Amino acid sequence: MKLPYYNPGRRSLTFSLFLVLTLTLLVLTGLGVFRLYFGFEWTAGNNDSGQLFTLSVRGGRSFNLFEADSFGRTFWSSLLILLMLCLLMPLFRLAGAAIIAGLSVAALLFTHVQMADSSSRIPVEFELLMVLVLFGTYVLLGYIGEVRDRKRVHRLLSQYVPAELAREYQRDPQAVSRSGVQREISVLFCDVVGFTAKSEQLTPPQLAEWLNMYFTYVSRIVVRYRGSIDKYMGDSVMAVWGAPSPSQTHAHDALCAGMDIQAEVETLNARYRDKNLPTVVMGIGISTGPAMVGPLGSEYRMDYTVVGDSVNVAQRLEAQTRKYKVPVIVSDKTAVELPGMAFRELDTVTVTGRSQPVTMYEPLGSRETLSEQVLQRVELHDQAMAASRSGDWDAAVELFGRLREEWGPTSMYDLYLRGIEQARKI
């Protein structure tokens, strides 16, 4: 992003004042009001002190402004030209300021030629040096201001679009596609269970504080796993992996973030309890698949986001966490992407707005870290699900009943048993 060297208002005034102060110092130096004298003498062999040379520095006032004769028309005309240079340069970008500096040089030379009969207190060579110093000072201040603006814009832009996109836009605004691209991504939806009831207990300031703490907690973990916050919707957080920067590990990173959000939620609830605020229970849905990534909106407002079936699936899976009483649910495509993770199959459902069914899974963790007992229960659960699909109701009831007692959650296995009972009546 190419930022201008100028900023109408405060920056122009600051630049002008600084340049005027610089000009004042240069004029006083040129007049000799402040002057340093350097003396150097080679003394080797001239005395017995052993010194090779002597260096002396003297300073002081060598010109009295109040007792000097008239400075003449050339001096005041040149000073006016330099003063206009200081006032006008900050109002323009670098190219415009360079033109003004060039015009000032021409004006100074013209002044000295036209007023040759009026001697100047400051040599024309020194006045030209003043123009160079003033222009160099302007360029330096402009560069410092540009760097500061870049950082400010990046911080501001990163709050509205992913940080990777903000950096890309700063490097090259034309590189950001306006039409969007199709990309394989993973989407995470995080929602508060019973948010309406909680919000009724809080005043508006308390609710704002409660939500800000919740959003900060979730966002910090998302960023930890290199995800991008797409949007906040009420009490929901939508995060994306694989956009705007492609990723080969988007499914793994999204799942790790979702599991950490649930695993570390007690730290957030401890802060809530310290402030006498309601604690939080969250449901998380994760889906993997193709989506369109890019700007979406109208001429009045644009939003960088992702749209596609994967987004819809993730949102629907999050809603299923309440029914199955599990904290995280992922889609079958997400599970396929992670062969090293252990999953418990929950059900195959047709989510709203989608014709193809989705098989839902509860992530349990890496197979390498799970105990042998958990892995045996996962295998037993798979057998129960297979028996249920094949219509072997007796085997399914036996296995689900055993898992209900030994593993749980009981409400989920009660749901399976009621479904088998209804199927038998048909």
Describe the model.
The chain is an alpha+beta fold and 426 residues long. It folds into three domains: 10-158, no CATH class; 180-365, Alpha-Beta Plaits; 371-426, no CATH class. The protein contains 14 helices and ten strands. The protein has helices spanning 10-31, 73-88, 94-114, 124-158, 163-171, 195-200, 204-224, 250-263, 265-274, 309-324, 332-336, 372-390, 393-406, 410-425; strands at residues 35-42, 53-60, 181-192, 228-233, 236-241, 282-297, 302-307, 328-331, 341-349, 358-366. A hairpin with a 2-residue loop joins strand 4 and strand 5 (236-241). Helix 4 (124-158) runs antiparallel to helix 5. The radius of gyration is 37 Å and the shape is elongated.
What is the CATH H-level superfamily of the largest domain? Nucleotide cyclase, GGDEF domain
Largest sheet: 8 strands, mixed
CATH class of the largest domain: Alpha Beta
Shape: elongated
**What is the string of SSEs from the N terminus onward?**
HEEHHHHEHHEEHHEEHEHEEHHH
Q: How does the helix and strand content classify structurally?
A: alpha+beta
CATH topology of the largest domain: Alpha-Beta Plaits
Number of helical regions:
14
What's the structural blueprint in terms of helices and strands?
Blueprint: H1 10-31, E1 35-42, E2 53-60, H2 73-88, H3 94-114, H4 124-158, H5 163-171, E3 181-192, H6 195-200, H7 204-224, E4 228-233, E5 236-241, H8 250-263, H9 265-274, E6 282-297, E7 302-307, H10 309-324, E8 328-331, H11 332-336, E9 341-349, E10 358-366, H12 372-390, H13 393-406, H14 410-425
Parallel strand pairs: 6-8
Antiparallel strand pairs: 1-2, 3-5, 3-6, 4-5, 6-7, 8-10, 9-10
Helix pairs in contact: 1-2, 1-4, 2-3, 2-4, 3-4, 4-5, 7-8, 12-13, 13-14
